[in-house]
Design a protein that fits this description.
It is a single chain. It contains 14 helices and 13 strands. It is of the alpha/beta class. It has helices at 2-9, 16-32, 36-44, 77-81, 126-136, 159-170, 195-211, 229-242, 263-269, 280-294, 309-317, 327-332, 336-350, 371-378, and strands at residues 53-55, 58-60, 64-66, 87-93, 106-109, 114-117, 143-148, 176-180, 219-223, 246-249, 273-276, 299-303, 322-325. Strand 3 (64-66), helix 4 and strand 4 (87-93) form a beta-alpha-beta unit. Helix content is 40%, strand content 15%. The longest helix has 17 residues, at 16-32. The model is unreliable at 367-379 (pLDDT under 50).
Length: 379
C-alpha cells in the first residue's frame, strides 16, 4: 500500500530512467550491507515446497524470475534475487559497449500499467560484464540467465560472430544463455528472427559455448509477440531441429492497439517496445502456439503482461515452466515477487496439485507432432 501511494503521488511524475537508476542504486547499497541480502532472501524468497521447479538441470526455488532489461550490466543480480525472484536474467549484453538511444527513452503509460522503452541495448559490453561476473563467481546469488544481443554497429551479415563473441566471454558465468533477436530498438534486429538468418546465429553461439568449455549450457531464443503465427511455428520447428533448450515468449511489442491511454499520452511516450498489461493476450497466444508445436520437448519461459498471480498461473497452465516479469514490479513495488509466488502457491493448492510442475501445460492438449514427424518436416 505504501508503495502504491508513493508511486501515484511522486514516482509517476518523475523521469522513469532516473528513478530506475536511483532505486536500483539504493537496492544495491542496501544489499551490500553484511547480512541484509541473506535476510531478505529468507523473508522474501519463495519457500513453499510446491513452487520448486526443475529446469535446465537446475532446481529453481520458484517459477518467477526477473526479465532481462532491469540489470543490463550484472551490477546487482544478488540484490535483485533478494527481492524474492526465483532467478534473474541480466542483459541485454552486446559484444561492444554502446550508449544506446538518446534520452528520454523510457516512458510510462500508467492507465495501461505499461512501459515504453527505446533504450537501444545500452550496456558496458560483454568484456566488462564478464569481468564483473568473474569477481562475483562462486559467491551467493540467484540462478543467473545471460541475455545477449547484436551490437548496433555490427552489420547484419556479421551478426553470427558478434553473438558468438559475447557467448564465448560470458559462458563461464551463466546458468543459461538467451539469444535476443526480438528487441524493436536495434535497427534490423527483428529481421534475424527469420529462420534462414536465425539458424546460423544459434549454431555460431552453440559453437562458441563449446569453445568456452560449456557445450552443455542451456541455450534459449527470445522472440517477439509481433511475429506472424507461421513464423512462430517456424521458430518452434527450428528449436526442435537444433535441439534448443528453451524459447522465451515474448519480448516487447511495437503495437499500440487497444490502449486505455489517450492518443496524446501514447504519442508523448514515443516509439519503442511496449511492455506490461497490454501485451498479456498476445503473449499468451504465442505461448499456447509454441506449446502446441513443441509439447514438452522445449522448455518455455513466459513473459509479457504478467501482473498478478492469476496471470502467471495462466501461463503455467498454458505450457510455461517458468515465468518472468519486469513491468509488473515497476507498478507493484519491491514486494511484488513475493506476492506473485505466494499467490501461485495458493492457486496450486486450490487446484489440487502438490507441485506447480504438475500444472505445466495442463490446459493444452498434447498436439505436438512426434519427434520423427518434426524432423521430417524440417529436413
Amino acid at each position: 500500500m505504501f508503495y502504491q501511494i508513493l508511486f501515484s503521488s511522486v514516482l509517476r511524475h518523475l523521469d522513469a530512467e532516473t528513478i530506475h537508476k536511483v532505486s536500483f542504486g539504493a537496492l544495491r547499497c542496501a544489499a551490500a550491507v553484511p547480512g541484509v541480502a541473506a535476510a531478505a532472501e529468507r523473508v522474501l524468497g519463495p519457500r513453499e515446497p510446491e513452487l520448486t521447479v526443475h529446469a535446465f538441470g537446475r532446481e529453481f526455488p520458484g517459477p518467477l524470475g526477473l526479465a532481462a532489461g532491469f540489470d543490463k550490466n550484472a551490477e546487482g543480480p544478488r540484490a535483485l534475487g533478494a527481492l524474492g525472484f526465483g532467478f534473474v536474467e541480466i542483459g541485454t549484453v552486446t559484444a561492444q559497449p554502446q550508449s544506446g538511444n538518446p534520452r528520454p527513452r523510457l516512458a510510462r503509460l500508467v492507465k495501461d500499467r505499461a512501459i515504453v522503452n527505446r533504450m537501444g541495448f545500452n550496456n558496458e559490453g560483454s568484456a566488462l560484464v564478464a569481468e564483473r561476473l568473474h569477481h562475483r563467481r562462486g559467491g551467493p546469488g540467484p540462478i543467473l540467465g545471460i541475455n545477449i544481443g547484436k551490437t548496433k554497429v555490427t552489420p547484419e551479415e556479421e551478426a553470427e560472430g558478434d553473438y558468438a563473441l559475447s557467448a564465448r566471454r560470458l559462458a563461464p558465468y551463466a546458468d543459461y544463455m538467451v539469444v535476443n533477436v526480438s528487441s524493436p530498438n536495434t535497427p534490423g534486429l527483428r529481421d534475424l528472427q527469420s529462420v534462414g538468418r536465425l539458424r546460423p546465429i544459434l549454431s555460431a553461439v552453440r559453437g562458441a559455448l563449446a569453445d568456452a568449455g560449456r557445450p552443455e549450457l542451456p541455450l534459449l531464443v527470445k522472440i517477439a509477440p509481433d511475429l506472424a503465427d507461421e513464423d512462430v511455428d517456424a521458430v518452434a520447428d527450428l528449436a526442435l531441429e537444433l535441439g534448443l533448450d528453451g524459447v522465451i515468449a515474448t519480448n516487447t511489442t511495437v503495437s499500440r492497439a487497444g490502449l486505455a491511454s489517450s492518443p496524446a499520452e501514447v504519442e508523448a511516450a514515443g516509439g519503442g517496445g511496449l511492455s506490461g498489461t497490454p501485451l498479456k493476450d498476445r503473449s499468451l497466444e504465442v505461448l499456447r502456439r509454441l506449446r502446441a508445436r513443441v509439447g514438452d520437448r522445449v522448455t518455455l519461459i513466459a513473459v509479457g503482461g504478467i501482473d498478478t498471480p492469476e496471470d502467471a498461473w495462466a501461463r503455467i497452465r498454458a505450457g510455461a515452466t517458468l515465468v518472468q516479469g519486469y513491468t509488473g514490479m515497476i507498478y507493484g513495488g519491491p514486494l511484488w515477487p513475493r506476492r506473485i509466488h505466494r499467490g501461485l502457491a495458493r492457486l496450486v493448492r486450490a487446484a489440487g496439485y502438490t507441485s506447480i510442475a504438475d500444472a505445466v501445460g495442463s490446459e493444452v492438449p498434447d498436439t505436438a507432432p512426434a519427434a520423427g514427424a518434426a524432423e521430417a518436416a524440417t529436413a
